[in-house]
């Protein structure tokens, strides 16, 4: 089903609002400019919208594609929990909705290829894939950038967690290739192991070849985010955190330090390097990885961000040599004078065509005996060596501890395990997040501009 979302009164008052204006920070003549908040979609009664992701067309700046879980306040991971996509062709001012008939749907992710194919992935059950139960990896393809979707999805098996997508936008022979990466439980040498699963499509997401499974060690791990460099090199990140005690029993065998690694492939995902160490500064939670594929002086530089072990800051590492050597972790917003911060979570990274690195996160504040959240953003103009003071993106506090969110609050207290940040071809950044300013989780978006002059 496709549903057109009409502009809100706020949007009508802000017509032409890509002339950005809400908040401005100046450091040495540089500014971060945040645009008006725009409501993408309203969660219906008892149907919170959580864990959104956002993708942008590589060459069409007004073409945006989002995905989200459509939850059920009464129960998480029930058959009534589905996923939806939202399409905008006017830079995020108006959005059209499409619902996917995926029961127990979770972990949605989207991408758009240079040729205009769109790919939607999620975990869940679909009637066209009877061999896949809960936790099955479902892939939908769209030949027109998300306007319409193929009737029958592709199934990539069961046992997955946190699936993500990378697109080859290079000028190599692998342009438009799609890589799907996830963590997957496998049986190796009569032992249960966690692996990094990589499936590739050479036709824009219509079909997938035989997947590759990498088992780095006997430690439990989370597969995280893949990126593709300007020559088609694939980099996939993962973090290990636990010895396999009692088949990964919760809380047992945890490592003193979570460790982050990279896998590198130069042959289109057929073979991978040994794990390349990146960081041990991270606490639990998902990280983010981004690559500079611009034509500037920082081309192919990698950026990795995660929540610091204390939970009070986000740390960033960078690599100039395709993940062989990484910089020391840099704490961002470590000098904040705000005393009510309980934690910072869920960093998201993106790099624009000018080589500017943007990073956004969810910041939780203790307020009037409740924990309320806001989205903040910062940026680096010098390849991650320094970052500008952060600016607030969301213009209202999100206080999700509401009966309207029901079980969704307990499962997704910050609106999910991740949210959307994408750079468009015109150099702007777009942020998409789940927000409970009106009690039930809804989707909101805003633009961020970081002028380089």
Q: Can you put this structure into words, describing what you see?
A:
The protein is an all-beta fold and about 450 residues long. The radius of gyration is 20 Å and the shape is globular. The protein has a single domain (about 1-450), classed as Neuraminidase, CATH 2.120.10. The strands form 7 sheets. Strands 2, 3, 4, 29, 30 and 31 form a 6-stranded antiparallel beta sheet that branches. Strands 1-8-7-6-5 form a 5-stranded antiparallel beta sheet, with no helix packed on it. It has a 4-stranded antiparallel beta sheet with strand order 9-10-11-12, with no helix packed on it. About 0% of the residues lie in helices and about 45% in strands.
Describe the structure in brief.
The protein is mainly beta. It has two helices and 31 strands.
The CATH architecture comes to: 6 Propeller
Text of the CATH class: Mainly Beta
Count helical runs.
2
The CATH topology is: Neuraminidase
Count of β-strands: 31
Mean pLDDT: 88
How many structural domains in the coordinates?
1
Radius of gyration: 20 Å
Described by strand count, sense and barrel closure, the largest sheet is: 6 strands, antiparallel
Uncertain runs: 1-28
């Amino acid at each position: 089903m496709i549903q057109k979302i009409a502009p809100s009164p706020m949007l009508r008052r802000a017509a032409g609002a890509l002339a950005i204006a809400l908040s401005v920070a100046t450091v040495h003549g540089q500014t971060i400019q945040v645009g008006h908040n725009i409501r993408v979609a309203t969660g219906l009664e008892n149907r919170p919208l959580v864990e959104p992701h956002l993708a942008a067309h590589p060459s069409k700046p007004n073409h945006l594609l989002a995905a989200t879980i459509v939850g059920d306040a009464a129960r998480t991971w029930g058959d009534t929990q589905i996923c939806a996509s939202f399409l905008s062709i006017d830079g995020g001012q108006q959005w059209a909705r499409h619902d996917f008939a995926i029961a127990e749907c979770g972990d949605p992710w989207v991408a758009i290829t240079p040729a205009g194919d769109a790919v939607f992935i999620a975990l869940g059950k679909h009637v066209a894939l009877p061999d896949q139960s809960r936790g099955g990896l479902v892939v939908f393809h769209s030949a027109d950038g998300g306007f319409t979707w193929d009737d029958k999805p592709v199934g990539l098996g069961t046992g997955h967690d946190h699936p993500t997508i990378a697109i080859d936008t290079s000028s190599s022979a692998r342009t438009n290739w799609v890589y799907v990466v996830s963590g997957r439980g496998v049986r190796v040498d009569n032992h249960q192991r966690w692996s990094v699963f990589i499936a590739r499509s050479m036709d824009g997401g219509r079909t997938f070849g035989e997947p590759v499974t990498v088992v780095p060690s006997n430690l439990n791990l989370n597969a995280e985010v893949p990126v593709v460099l300007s020559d088609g090199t694939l980099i996939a990140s993962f973090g290990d955190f636990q010895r396999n005690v009692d088949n990964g029993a919760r809380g047992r065998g945890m490592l003193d330090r979570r460790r982050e690694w990279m896998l590198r492939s130069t042959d289109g995902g057929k073979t991978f390097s040994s794990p390349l160490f990146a960081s041990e500064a991270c606490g639990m939670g998902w990280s983010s990885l981004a690559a500079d594929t611009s034509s500037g002086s920082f081309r192919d530089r990698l950026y990795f961000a995660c929540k610091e072990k204390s939970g009070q800051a986000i740390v960033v590492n960078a690599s100039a040599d395709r993940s062989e050597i990484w910089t020391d972790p840099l704490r961002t917003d470590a000098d904040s004078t705000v005393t009510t911060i309980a934690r910072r979570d869920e960093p998201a990274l993106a790099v624009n065509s000018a080589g500017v690195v943007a990073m956004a996160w969810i910041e939780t504040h203790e307020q009037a005996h409740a924990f309320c959240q806001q989205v903040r953003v910062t940026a680096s103009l010098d390849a991650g060596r320094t970052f500008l003071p952060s600016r607030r993106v969301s213009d209202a506090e999100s206080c999700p501890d509401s009966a309207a969110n029901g079980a969704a609050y307990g499962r997704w207290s910050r609106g999910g395990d991740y949210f959307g940040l994408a750079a468009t071809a015109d150099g702007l950044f777009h942020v998409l997040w789940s927000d409970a300013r009106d009690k039930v989780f809804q989707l909101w978006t805003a633009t961020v501009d970081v002028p380089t002059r």
